[in-house]
Structures are given as C-alpha cells and as structure tokens.
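Q: What residues go here?
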C-alpha cells in the first residue's frame, strides 16, 4: 500500500560519522525515530546537497527535501543548500545545530551545546576515584577545536586543584608551523611522565593520535 508522503516528517542528518560522538547521536536519533512511525530519517551528504543545488528541474516533488535538519558543527554547503531550497524550491528548512562553533556563520533555528565544563569535571572525578596521581592533559593545535580544548581541560585542571593535584599539559605544535610530528612529539612527552599515569583528552580525534603516540613510544 502506497503511503502518503505528506503525512511523514522528513529529518535530514548532517553528521560527520568518523566521530564516535556523532555515531552515538545518530544511534540515539534512530532509537527515537523507531518510536514514531511518522518520522523519516536520512543522512544528507555533501554530494546530496550538491546534487540538489545543481538540479536543473527544480521540481520540489522530484527531489527529496527534508522538513528539518539536524547538523553538527559547521557543515560545508549547508547555508547554500538551505538558501536554494528556500528561494528556488519555496521550501524553508529549519535547522538545529549540535555544538555550533562560536565563530561559525551557519544560520540555525536552534542549538544544542555540550556542557564542556561538566565533561572536564567528570573526567577528573573519574580518574581521582581510580586513585591516579600522575595525570596528563592533552590539548590540540587545531584552531577549529580550541573552543572545546580550552573549556574541558580548564575544568579538568580546576577539579584536580580542588583535590590538591595538578597535571602535565601537552599541546603538540601544529605541523604546519613546525617540523615536529604531533605523534612523535606527544610520544616523547609521554615517555617523561612517571608511570603509571592517566591521560585526559578532550575529543575522540585527539584520543586516536594519543593512542598512536603510545604505540610509537612502546607504552601500554
């Protein structure tokens, strides 16, 4: 039996799936959608947006257009895509951004921001409960990540100080401005830390290269 598509709410997701946090978000959205038979969820890729913008037909019934968008950070093409849908297809599309970069020019109708301070405090409290004394905080050279990298480690260190401890901070040099590899530089810094030690990183992306640095330094 053919369904009436107008009775469904089409929600597009613009998420970078290489990030674990976005895979978790995607999983949560799908679990919610499973409880609502009138929700249609699709991933909207950069190629999908390009195909819509370059469409010659411009027939709103021939192109899948969402009723709303959930996006993370500062996805490329999103402003252009929404402008095309509004001006050419006569279809304004509301958008909710997750963890919007404060410097982004992406227009949105709502935001969901991560509580960075709570993340830093929770990480410190967890390691303190484990009885860790030698603590390390890995920051980043990536300018696009600094707004997270400043708040989470700051709360992490503040919580440690409240408990009479501090940590070693490692911020690798940007390879574009220096000769050192972030992995080699981090490996050398970790070798100098008394063992056992515990490491706090503020994102999954940083965790990957810290693990690579541990392998390089032959550290468990």
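A:
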């Amino acid at each position: 039996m053919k369904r009436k598509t107008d009775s469904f709410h089409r929600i597009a997701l613009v998420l970078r799936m290489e990030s674990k946090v976005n895979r978790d978000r995607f999983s949560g959205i799908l679990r919610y959608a499973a409880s609502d038979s009138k929700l249609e969820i699709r991933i909207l890729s950069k190629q999908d947006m390009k195909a819509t913008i370059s469409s010659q037909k411009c027939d709103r019934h021939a192109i899948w257009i969402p009723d709303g968008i959930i996006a993370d950070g500062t996805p490329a093409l999103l402003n252009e895509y929404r402008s095309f849908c509004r001006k050419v297809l006569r279809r304004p599309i509301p958008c909710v951004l997750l963890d919007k970069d404060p410097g982004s020019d992406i227009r949105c109708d709502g935001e969901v921001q991560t509580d960075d301070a709570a993340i830093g405090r929770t990480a410190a409290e967890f390691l303190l409960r484990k009885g860790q004394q030698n603590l390390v905080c890995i920051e980043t050279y990536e300018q696009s990540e600094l707004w997270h990298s400043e708040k989470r480690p700051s709360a992490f260190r503040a919580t440690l100080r409240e408990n009479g401890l501090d940590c070693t901070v490692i911020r690798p040099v940007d390879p574009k401005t220096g000769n050192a590899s972030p992995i080699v530089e981090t490996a050398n810094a970790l070798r100098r830390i008394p063992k056992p030690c515990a490491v706090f990183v503020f994102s999954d992306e940083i965790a990957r290269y810290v693990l690579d640095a541990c392998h390089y330094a032959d550290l468990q």
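A: Context that may help when evaluating the design: Residues 173 and 179 are 9 Å apart (CA to CA). The mean pLDDT is 84.
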